[in-house]
Fold this protein.
Amino acid sequence: MDNDLIYKIALTQIPKVGSVTAKNLISYCGGVKEVFSKSKSFLKKVPGIGETLAANIFSFDGFEAVREEIDFINQNKVDVHFLLDNSYPHRLKQIPDCPIVVYSKGSSNLNPEKCIAIVGTRKMTSYGKQFVHKLIEEISVYQPTIVSGLAYGVDVQAHKQSLKYDLPTFGVVAHGLDQVYPSLHRPIVQEMIKNKGAVISEYTSKTIPIKENFPMRNRLVAGMVDAVIVIESANKGGSLITAELANPYNRDVLALPGAINQKYSAGCNYLIKKNKAHLIEGIEDLVQLLNWDVQIERKVQKPLFQDFTDNQQKLFSIIHENTEVGIDHLQIKSGFVSSLIAITLLELEMKNCIVSLPGKRYKSLQ
């Protein structure tokens, strides 16, 4: 068992501490456990932490509930993916407001080679249903993982058709993994897990699916994939939120056009009209957009990062110039003390520039 797991989960349970603030705390304190050992005066100096948040952190008394959560995790074979773990979804790590902890049940591999989201209205028409069926049938040859939200309508059809064509499918939910919402979809979840799929959440058990959780869930759907396909949507709804989030996350968005007098085509037509989505008529549009049928040779260039501090740039340069680098080599080459190396490596990992390997070794991702 991860010795720091109790602190990783606890950090997500502190009132008013969101994912961005949590990352700042980890970086400035030198680790997750260290957040809970710092003085209140130290915590107040962390960017984004004032008197109230410092008090919330310093006086946190929810460790017993966290221990109960760890018991639930162990008893129900739930996987925990911390931001700096290799198992954490690497696509999700690229978005600025990604959660520091993600829970999953089923496949422990949340980093498939090809991954797309299919989302849309709960009140799907026969037009949308036929398109979902045809799209997934034709896309199955490329063996992508299909991500959706387990809701009625387009979501559950995407999951069902993925199972029909033996494609792994991930359901991202807005509640804890101790339940399935809607409960009618429990048998589908069981089949998804059997078929190398997973159910994924950022919420601990006993978290109910309240209204405010669904937009948060939608950012995970958008962040975990290469592209988002909106099948049908009214001019308001969760699938439009997912599409609007996907654009600043630099994810490709595609939308199925429909008749101008059809309520559940209005959202898709709007996305296309405002250049917020590519028009999709069939599988060829997706394949071409994602270059799935074209091998592109990319030149390797040494990256330039203008937002690096001097310490970050020095360590990154040492790592980038070598295949793999150990702590001892970094200390000799940089001249940094071990505590400064630890903090700087954590900052570089959070920028998604390096990855930690077994044996306290590090490798550049750029």
About this structure: The first helix runs from residue 5 to 12. The chain is about 40% helix and 15% strand.
